[in-house]
Specification:
The protein has 270 residues and is an all-alpha fold. The chain has helices at 3-19, 21-55, 57-63, 68-71, 77-89, 91-107, 110-115, 119-123, 129-167, 175-200, 206-213, 218-228, 236-260, 263-267. The two termini are 27 Å apart.
């Protein structure tokens, strides 16, 4: 494996990505909305949520959620409502972040090269098929991982600020969220990268690759729907299992991609 060649491919792709406003703007806006705006909204609504808790409305709603009694033990009704929103309900939103970031960059991978008419030069670089594929994967996975981990730090600060009027103390991050950030988020980014790069290598335009790659976000959306509707409440073991499933899918996609990726096929699409 020629790691110098792989690093050169990663640097080239990252330079192109961050010069492309169609890719870089979503990478900036998504973290702002999910990690900053949503906790601020909760902070603004905190007094109202306290009133709901005083009347029993918030508590009645939480009691109907599976697993909520154990997850929110030790909190009063107003505090439980805020903790449920910030710790449990917004967790799937956080997972959407590395997936969407990885998708945005990966869609610009081979499909973007085709649109910019630079694919031919890329195919004639002195690299093997495996090095070329690895370079494309890393150029999307590493920024998505950086956004996920940096976002986790930002979210930790914003959540504690948002919950301070109700809780009056620092309570975040929880063990579940540490596992989510360290174990699940990299796997979720890998899922978005592996699937989207394979799709991008077959798609002819960035838009086509992005539309086809959107299917990757469905598992996270299902998790989000389950949380919002109260079908389930995330736990440490459920989050750990989710990460294991994601990593297993990543390994399968990597194996399939390595066996099927051929630059000769890409040459026929120029």
């Amino acid at each position: 494996m020629n790691w110098n060649a792989v690093r050169a491919l990663v640097r080239k792709d990252l330079k192109v990505v961050f010069q492309n406003k169609g890719v870089s703007i979503p990478l900036i806006m998504a973290p702002i909305i999910i990690l900053v705006a949503l906790p601020v909204v909760v902070a603004v609504l905190a007094p109202t949520l306290g009133d709901m808790g005083a009347t029993g409305s918030a508590g009645g709603m939480l009691q109907g959620l599976p697993g909520s009694q154990a997850a929110l033990a030790g909190y009063d009704e107003a505090q439980g409502f805020v903790v449920y929103v910030l710790v449990y309900m917004l967790a799937p939103f956080y997972l959407i972040l590395p997936v969407v970031s990885a998708m945005s960059i990966a869609c610009d991978s081979f499909a973007g090269e085709k649109e910019r008419k630079t694919l031919e030069a890329l195919l004639y670089t002195p690299t093997t098929d495996g090095e070329l594929l690895l370079g494309k994967l890393l150029s999307a996975w590493l920024p998505a991982l950086g956004i996920a981990w940096g976002g986790f730090i930002i979210y930790s600060v914003m959540v504690n600020l948002a919950a301070w009027p109700v809780l009056g103390r620092v309570f975040f991050p929880t063990t579940m969220w540490v596992i989510l950030a360290v174990w699940v988020a990299p796997a979720a980014a890998g899922l978005g990268v592996c699937a989207t790069v394979l799709i991008s290598s077959r798609a002819r335009t960035f838009q086509e690759a992005y539309q086809l790659g959107a299917v990757v976000i469905l598992p996270v959306l299902m998790l989000l729907i389950g949380q919002v509707t109260g079908v389930m409440v995330l736990s440490i073991w459920l989050v750990a299992l989710l990460g294991l499933v994601f990593w297993a899918i990543d390994a399968t996609l990597l194996w399939f991609g390595r066996r099927t990726f051929r630059r000769s096929k890409l040459a026929t699409q120029m």
